[in-house]
Amino acid sequence: MGKVVLVTGVARQLGGRFVRRIQREPDVDRVIGVDAMPPEHHLGGADFLRADIRHPTIGRLLAEHRVDTVVHMDVNGTPLGKRGSRATVKETNVIGTMQLLGACQKTPSVKRLVVKSSTNVYGSAPRDPAIFTETTPPKSLPSGGFAKDAVEVEGYVRGFARRRPDVAVCVLRFANILGPRADSPLTQYFGLPALPTVLGFDPRLQFVHEDDVIEVLRTAAGEPRRGTLNSGTFNIAGDGVLLLSQAARRLGRPTLPFFLPTVTWVGSALRSAGMTDFSPEQIRLLTHGRVVRTTQMRETLGFEPRYTTAGAFEDYARSRGPGLLPPATLARTVDRIAAALPAGRGQN
Amino acid sequence: MADAKVIPFGEEPRAKRKGKRVARARTDRTSALAPVGRVLTQAAPEPDTEAPTVPAQAGPAESGRGGAGSPERDGGGWDRKLAHGLSFLRRRITGEYEVDDFGYDQELTDQVVMSALRPLYEKYFRVEVKGVENIPEKGAALIVANHSGTLPVDGLMLQVAVHDHHPAGRHLRMLAADLVFVLPVVNEIARKLGHTLACAEDAQELLERGEVVGVMPEGFKGIGKPFSERYKLQRFGRGGFVQTALRAGAPIVPCSIVGAEEIYPMVGNSRTLARLLGIPYFPLTPTFPWLGPMGVVPLPTKWTIQFGEPIPTDGYPPEAADDPMLMFNLTDQVRETIQHTLYKLLVQRRSVFF
């Protein structure tokens, strides 16, 4: 008997891609995609059921289709489309997760639960250690926004894992997801013609490529390979770090440094203009940065990301086209100056 | 470890300590004020063991390790330097350089920051380095140093000392106070220099990666102590550094820095201003803040940095890191080694400025 996989949040790009990918797994019989609104992209051969996870109907769905694997991807920072508000997002994140977990608890067929979380749960503070491990407690708990949602979601998931010890629960904390198709506040930020930064701070950023996100979700949703364990909490990020200044240069976009207090005003101005979602936690990230340790991902989960942080960023940058100061042009200019010098030849 | 209990330092009440320490205090004061060549009588019987074996490794001006300033013999030196500078510029403006997980930008550190600090190190403070070979050629090590001087210049000089003098060209990764990472600009430079927050997690991580980690366990108590208490080591935190070294099995290299105490003689501390600004102390020196920006110029003291014999920690069983007794003993051993070396260096010193 093959597996029946239920995926939430399929109206988003990432959810849609995962549904299409998981169908190709040999041991998967059926994939059910669930979201409150119909997806604009196709879902391959998967069944789409329009259901809001905030309502108890989800429990009936689980029982009716004898679902054994639940992949909860409907934990998001931003509303889907232009119409949603932050309040709905929060409700879907928190109430939706509670409802879904309640339904899972009542459904004996559920054997595996995968939850998409975020490294936002660590917050971002100057007094934090430079590298977070899965067990590092945050120095300052995120006070609101998506980070707080993610913390609460993880809290409920832990409660569920205690009540249903027979279910394999896997929480994946993703670093900032980047890729040609990824759409997040950070990709919008990098899309600005000039990047506002915080004066005197150069945060360390870590990215994970969207292809790796799909792959690691698949690893977590399937049976563990020999010698690996795919239940527990894992940080998922590409190797290495990029400084924001470095990222801006590689992208070819000039930076606009602001004093920290003014950044908040600029952020809210940009937000109200609808140009980018510059939330306070975003500003904290762009001030202090965040780096996680991925040893658990490699050694316990047995997952090797294909893209490094720099690789994921490069792939993203390629999809966006050059900015105002394309690195290739700058490099050519320097080369030309170097070539004009007699000793410069053969050095570069 | 029995000989580690020779002189109890620190925790006794001040009045009592004063009585015991008259000779010592005089040593300090006289040596601080002494004209060149005046050697104290108490100094004579103290045998000097380490110093003569290490003839001052007075740094070759351009060790060439940085590469940026390696002097060229032929006339094309300038051109080549310019070309090198341009290729450096090319990498910087296109962002094609690497930083590690802690944000350490080795290229920037070697070629820009070290070059900027070197004149201060060589010409201004004329730092003399002894015993640099006590830092292992490879593998992790924890350098524990005294902290002084109102501003953490000693940490930077220690970094230059290891960078310029160590035969294997090792890079020192300093652990810095959390205040450093709160301040704009400062935190950015500190991260790029490879500094990180002084917490057990970061220290552990760096040691596990086989880095040479530098720590100044006195923290603000050491750097912000009044001038009258110079060269008296403060409490060494809670000995967390020993625990971390034990966990990683990394040797502890005690390090004594002489000269940093006098760069900004802190004669007063305005607690009100410090509280207002949210900083641990607000120094009042003979020149600061009275002379404005001029008051920030440090006094050109002559420095000596002495690295002591490494104290191995790999011989202990794994549970030793959780043994508070052992931890306190090792902490005291390290502390007393540094204090003894400080006194030894002080009596050898001819004057504060030469």
UniProtKB/TrEMBL annotation, chain A:
**Entry keyword Isomerase:** yes
Xref: Pfam families: Epimerase
- ATP-binding as a keyword of this entry, yes or no, is no
Q: Which InterPro entries match?
A: Epimerase_deHydtase, Lipid_A_modif_metabolic_enz, NAD(P)-bd_dom_sf
Q: Which Gene3D superfamilies match?
A: NAD(P)-binding Rossmann-like Domain
Q: Sorted alphabetically, which SUPFAM superfamilies does this protein's record hold?
A: NAD(P)-binding Rossmann-fold domains (SSF51735)
Q: Which keywords does this Swiss-Prot/TrEMBL entry list?
A: Isomerase
Where is the NAD-dependent epimerase/dehydratase domain positioned along the sequence? 5-237
Which GO-annotated molecular functions does the record name?
UDP-glucose 4-epimerase activity
Q: What is its EC number?
A: 5.1.3.2
- UniProt name for this protein: NAD-dependent dehydratase
Record organism: Streptomyces eurocidicus
Automatic annotation (TrEMBL), chain B:
Which molecular-function annotations from GO does this UniProt entry contain? acyltransferase activity
UniProt key word Acyltransferase:
yes
Specify residue ranges for compositional bias: Basic residues. 15-24
Task: Please list the residue ranges annotated as the Phospholipid/glycerol acyltransferase domain.
Answer: 141-260
What positions belong to coiled-coil segments? none
* Signal peptide range in chain numbering: none
InterPro entries given in the database record: Plipid/glycerol_acylTrfase
- Keywords for the protein's UniProt record, in alphabetical order: Acyltransferase, Transferase
What's a GO cellular component annotated to this UniProt protein?
membrane
Q: Does Secreted count among this protein's keywords?
A: no
- Annotated region described as Disordered, given as residue ranges: 1-79
Q: SMART domains, per this entry?
A: PlsC
Q: What is this protein called?
A: Glycerol acyltransferase
What species is given as this protein's source? Streptomyces eurocidicus
